[in-house]
Design brief:
Elements (H helix, E strand, L loop, with lengths): L2 H123 L1
């Protein structure tokens, strides 16, 4: 082998070794990146699981709120109907009292008229 070939061979081996070191460094970087990626994927899975839990809790909360709202509306409707029934009963009693008051006023007018008639009769007899 000539000195030039030997020099070329040494240089090629050195370049190969440098390339191997670069390759190993790149492989280490790749492995580190893969670990980071796996950690990020695991974190993403945890976030997605938490998101699913939150969505489920939100749905349950909405269902509970809807049930509470329905029950509240039912109670409100029931109370409204009870108030309407009492109002109608009060209106009927009021109407009855108005009729009774009118009847009593009529009777008072009749009594006054009878008193006037009696007075007149008494004065005419005297």
């Amino acid at each position: 082998m000539t000195p030039e070939q030997e020099q070329w061979l040494i240089q090629a081996i050195q370049e190969l070794q440098a390339s191997q070191r670069e390759l190993q460094a790149s492989q280490r970087e790749l492995q580190a990146s893969q670990r980071e990626l796996q950690a990020a994927q695991q974190e993403l899975r945890l976030v997605q699981q938490n998101q699913q839990v939150l969505i489920q809790e939100l749905r349950e909360g909405q269902a509970m709120l809807a049930q509470f709202f329905r029950e509240s509306m039912d109670r409100f409707d029931e109370r409204t109907r009870a108030i309407e029934r009492r109002t109608e009963a009060v209106e009927r009693r009021t109407e009855a009292l108005e009729r009774r008051t009118d009847e009593m006023a009529r009777e008072m007018r009749e009594i006054r008229q009878e008193i006037r008639d009696l007075r007149r009769d008494f004065l005419e007899r005297r």
